[in-house]
Amino acid sequence: MATNTKKKILIVDDEQNITWSMEKYLSKEGYFIATADSAKKGAELLNTSPFDLVITDMKMPEVDGFQFLNWIKKNHPKSKVVIMTAFGSPSIRETAKQLGAFRYFEKPVDLNQLRKFINETLADKGFTGNILDIDLFDFVQMILLARKQKLISVTDPVTMQMGLLYLKGGDVIHAECGNLKGEEAFYTIMAMKSGIFSDMPWIDPPQRTINAPFNHLLMEAARIMDESASNLQDLEATVEAVKKVMEKHKNENQEKIDNAEAIKQILALLRNEIPETLCVMIINARDGRLVEGSTAIDRYNMNESSTIFKNLFSTCGDAEVMLTGFAERRRQIEELLITNQQDYSIIRKLKDGKYLIYISFPKTSNLGMVKITLNNYVSELESHLP
Questions:
Q1: pTM value?
Q2: DSSP state of 316
């Protein structure tokens, strides 16, 4: 856990004017600052006393910043490393991240921005753990259940592989490990047997690569670890085991993709037959998640089905009372027709209540024809739902 001791920062750069200005600026924040004009001298200081953060230039004589970063991760994995360079490029940034750099700054460094970053990084609110002492699986599950927003780095000091887990609102939304991304990266990280994991300042991922519910991800990760536990010797073997499991489920995943596309097409056909349709959605009745949907107006947020239902019931009366009553009677109800001032809304069970179809349309529509049209598509929709 973080402590209240004075945080220690090591600045390594062969340009003395840079180390002098950074030392003077950061000392005012109450940090203990040490400087070195080469990676060799920086290594000597690290071997003498550990540092919470190392800020190093990339281009230095004898040993460059990447070599120094690699040495730090092998010998002092608890020290976070920030890379500075005057020769920035996307490839250099990607290499720094793959080697385990905590952050990347281009020169000239904005000292105020650097100060804010360091204050956030070294604040006594973070968490650092060792996978040998604390179960990463349990820690991730705790964060997901608490629906917190966390960016967790995981570093294996033996193989020097680094992984990143992006957790937000009770979901794993992205994962990276080496060249792997998405679910494959997540399973590889969760299978690590040793290493250090810690909080990092939150940044949005470049894209969302994981959409599966967290309980599915954790169950799959546990199964992979069980299947590979008898013969895994290192991270490379872990990656191979993950690839085999992913290959095993490739056909299943392709079937899910095909089904999702089919559902989209069916909903599009349904909307074409009822042109005035305002919104149509398929919802997972167990957790309220949107499966697929289509809308013609902005007031329907397709990514938040619970908001639609809250607004829907609020227009009819006391939302909490109505929703509670509906929950108590949901086993008996097959279809619900709701009327507000301008629109009709129909909620109907699919697959014996595992899913719901929701359709909204103006009162000017022919209600009977809408129901007949909906009936024509129900069986086809159900055939593509798991």
A1: 0.37
A2: T
